[in-house]
Amino acid sequence: MNKILLTIFLLTFYFYGQAQEKTEVLLLGTYHFGGNTTDSVKVTNDNILGKKKQKEIDIVLNKLEKFKPDEIYIENEPIQQVFWDSIFTEYKNGTDIKIKNELFQIATKLAVRLNLNHGATCVDWHIKPEKTFAEKEYIKLFDAMNNYYLQNNIPDDEPQSKYEKEIIQKVKDFTKSMSDLELIDVYRKLNSKSYLNEMFYTNITSFLDIDEYNMNVFWSQNNMIRNVNIYQNIIQDILKTKPKRVLVLIGVGHIKALKNYLEVHPTIKIVDTEKYLE
C-alpha cells in the first residue's frame, strides 16, 4: 500500500512540475546601433562595422549564447518579418552582410550561432498605419490632442521639473560617452536597475511632475500604449510556440514596463540579465 501511495505521489509531483514549467525570459535593453533611430538622443559615431566594435559584439554574443534562447524577439514591426527572415537565411548561408543595427549584429548573428531554425521575431508596434477598430479610434484621439496644441498655441517646450532636467542630462551625458566604451560595459550600464528606473522616469512619468496645460497624462499613457502592444505580441507568441528560453532585445526605454507586464504572467520567469553580462 505504501508503494502505491508513493507511486501516486511521485506521479502527481512529476505532472504538476511539468504543468508548472515556465518560459525563462531574458530582457536585454539596448541602444540603437549606428544612430538607427528617430529618438532625439542617439549614438551616431559608434563605428559598429569596425574591427574593434566587431570584437566587442563577439564578447556580448559569447555571453548571450550561454543563455541558449529558443526565440529572439526584436524591435521591428511584424510587417518586416519577411525581410528579417531573408537576412537570417542569407547570413546563415555565408553571405557577407553589412547591416549596422542591433537587429542584425546581435539578434540575427546570435540566432545563427545557436543554429535556430528561424531568425528573430518582430514584435514592435506603432499606431500608424492603424488597422483595428481600437487603433482607428485611438488615432482620432491622438490627432485631436495634437490639434488642441495648435489651436491653443501651446509651446512644444513645456515646463520641466528640476528632477526631469537632471535625469535627462544624465542620460544625454552617458549617451555621448557610449561610443568610447566597451560594448559589454555599455550593456551593463543600460541594464542596471538604476538606469532602467531613470529611463522609465524620463519616458513615462517625468511628464507628470509639472502639467501646466493638463495634457501630460495623455502623453504618459501614449508612451505606454506601445509597451502594452509590444507585450501582447511577445506573450501571444510565447503562448503559441511555448519556448523554454526567450531573449527580448529591445530599446532600453521599454525594458522596465515589459518586465512589469511579463513577470506577473503565470507562464513566465524573468532571469537576471546582469548575471549573463558578467
Number of domains: 1
Which spans of ≥5 residues are poorly predicted at pLDDT below 50?
A: 7-18
Q: For the largest beta sheet, what order do the strands appear in spatially?
A: 3-2-4-1-5
Helix-residue proportion: 40-55%
Radius of gyration: 22 Å
- β-sheet strand percentage: 5-15%
Our count of helices gives 11
Strand tally is 5
Description of the structure:
The protein is α/β, with parallel strands linked by helices. It has one domain. It has 11 helices and 5 strands. It has helices spanning 2-19, 51-65, 81-92, 102-113, 133-151, 162-177, 183-190, 193-205, 216-241, 255-263, 273-276; strands at 23-30, 71-74, 121-122, 245-251, 268-270. It has a 5-stranded parallel sheet with strand order 3-2-4-1-5, with helices on both faces. Helix 2 crosses helix 4 (102-113) and helix 6 (162-177) crosses helix 8. The chain is globular and about 55 Å long. The termini are far apart.
